[in-house]
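Page 47, continued from p. 46.
Same chain as before, 156 aa.
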Amino acid sequence: MSKFKKKKKGLPALSTASLPDIVFMLLFFFMVTTKMRETSLLVDTPRLPSATEVKKLENKSLVSTIYVGKAKDSKYGGGYESIQLNDKIATADDVPAFILKAREEIAEKEHPFMTTSLKADKESSVGTLADIREKLRDVNALKLSLSTHKGDAIKK
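Result:
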């Protein structure tokens, strides 16, 4: 017998030195591309109205969104039509304060470019929407965008 055994020559082990680089590259990719939801929805807006002429909003940082629909939770009047501003249920009278607060957060030169997006359920009351529009007019927030989904042309 010999003192030294001969090693069998085979495939070398797979190098895992670059594995942390790949993991961190994937982590950074998903961190950059993931969009976090800013507000949790307290109202249902499952059925948006459809429109044939649809245009995407350009600068979303200058957009204030107002949600109108039936409240999800019973403590917010579940099943009844509600208005949501940020993360709270509000009334049409709270809309001017919401817009003025949004104006304070941006530079004064960008005030004319501010847009108010109204995301309302298809079966929302026209009276509620008219009240919101009136309150927006009171604070000179005249750029209004209605959220819709692209639909077919209406046939007569």
